[in-house]
Specification:
three-stranded mixed β-sheet, 421 residues, alpha/beta
Length: 421
């Protein structure tokens, strides 16, 4: 035992490695430093491999990790003995360590050759990344399919909701349509009653006075009371004729049978002329007609029809106002003209306002009011033919305001023949 020990660690007459280098400090430091750095690296690498093995056993199998760790560790020890033999000639022990390193190295090489296919079959990082990407793509495709399914379900639910809402709306529309039809039937019946009344009154006068003439109630001579009957017959016929003309006029305006004869003129002059025309009737009732204009009131339209429009509005204001005043306010700009006619008259009941622009609808049904309820229908149709608007605000016992809005130019004026007034 002692002889083996002496053989391993004894110098056996050998000289240290430094003698071979003639103890040159620079060469010795170069060899010692290099061996020390290599040994340090070889000692660190096995620990790193074992740490990797511990965290990723699938990446580094146990036999490979152990063999590589032993091989690299022994290589590090041989470099340590390269430093020792620089001063201590323990070449036998160094040889034994090199032999052990060789044995482990060869064992590692044999193991690698025997398991080459298995090791080669381990997926590469790129392969794993590709596989991972394929898995992610599959997951994304599955998520997309689920999202499409959810979207389809949501769309079906929305369609069901929409169909349900549509059916409910149709039911509501059906009920509203029934109400509208009922209202139109009632309005038709009311209109027929009004038409019947408006036609019967003058017809009764014509028939009654004609019968009195035929019966010679006041003799054969066409004078005295008989002449009054003839005049009453004429007046009744004229009222019927005027009513028929107004009805025909409304229908022609609605159907567009009346073509606009466009010209350029000033509305303020028209207002003044109409006010002068109605001044006598207004004075008899003690009414003041006030005109206030602002801005440019030059318009391109059918002068005759617009005269009818504003004459109807102003004559109604005079007719249904017993005291106070009538104010005409007009304001214009480059595109639009607004006209407000306000009176302090009798006003219109709230339940009559929705149909006030319909045929044979009168806000005042008293016997003293007169008229056939056609004037405002004509006003509305003339405003429509000029691409304008008209609406009415009224309170019973307080008065009425009629507002008319008209464009300065007609949309089709470029194609129309615009004549000078």
């Amino acid at each position: 035992m002692s002889s083996l020990y002496e053989w391993l660690v004894g110098d056996a007459g050998f000289a240290p490695h430094g003698y071979c280098l003639i103890w040159d400090d620079r060469i010795i430091h170069l060899h010692v430093g290099s061996d020390a750095a290599i040994a340090l690296a070889y000692f660190i690498i096995p620990f790193v491999l074992l740490m990797v093995r511990r965290e990723r056993p699938d990446l580094l199998p146990a036999p490979v990790a152990v063999l590589f760790a032993a091989f690299i560790l022994l290589c590090g020890i041989t470099h340590v003995f390269g430093i020792i033999t620089m001063w201590q000639p323990v070449y036998a022990l160094q040889g034994v360590l090199k032999a052990a390193t060789a044995a482990v190295s060869l064992g590692t090489a044999v193991f690698l050759l025997a398991n080459k296919r298995h090791i080669a079959g381990v997926p590469s990082v790129a392969g794993m990344a590709k596989l991972n990407e394929e898995l992610l793509a599959g997951i994304r495709e599955k998520e997309k399919a689920e999202a499409d399914r959810d979207q389809l379900i949501n769309e079906l639910e929305e369609r069901v909701k929409a169909r349900t809402a549509r059916l409910e709306q149709l039911m509501l529309d059906h009920a509203a349509l029934n109400e509208q039809l009922q209202a139109e039937i009632e309005a038709r019946d009311a209109m027929l009653a009004n038409v019947s009344h408006d036609f019967k009154t003058p017809l009764n006068a014509i028939i009654g006075f004609s019968e009195m003439l035929e019966m010679k109630v006041h003799g054969d001579k066409l004078g005295g009371r008989n002449l009054d009957y003839v005049r009453d017959i004429r007046d009744a016929g004229q009222r019927l004729s005027a009513l028929v003309r107004q009805i025909v006029e409304v229908q022609r305006l609605k159907s567009g049978a009346i073509a606009l004869e466009l010209s350029e003129f000033d509305l303020d002059e028209m207002f003044s002329s109409i006010a002068n025309e109605l001044e006598l009737d207004a004075r008899r009732k003690g009414l003041a007609i006030n005109l206030k204009t602002e801005g440019k009131l030059t318009i391109i339209g059918d002068k005759l029809l617009l005269w009818r429009l504003f004459e109807n509005i102003l004559s109604n204001a005079v007719k249904y106002t017993d005291h106070g005043r009538i104010d005409i306010q007009a304001k214009g700009d480059r595109d639009w003209i607004s006209v407000h006619v306000t009176d302090t008259g009798r006003g219109i009941a709230a339940d009559k306002l929705p149909n006030v622009f319909e045929m044979f609808q009168r806000g005042d049904r008293s016997d003293t009011a007169g008229g056939h309820g056609v004037g405002l229908a004509i006003v509305r149709e003339i405003a429509r033919r000029h691409n304008g608007t008209v609406w009415l605000d009224s309170a019973e016992g307080e008065g009425t305001t009629v507002t008319v809005g008209l464009p300065v130019r007609q949309p089709d004026m470029a194609e129309a023949a615009v004549s000078e007034n």
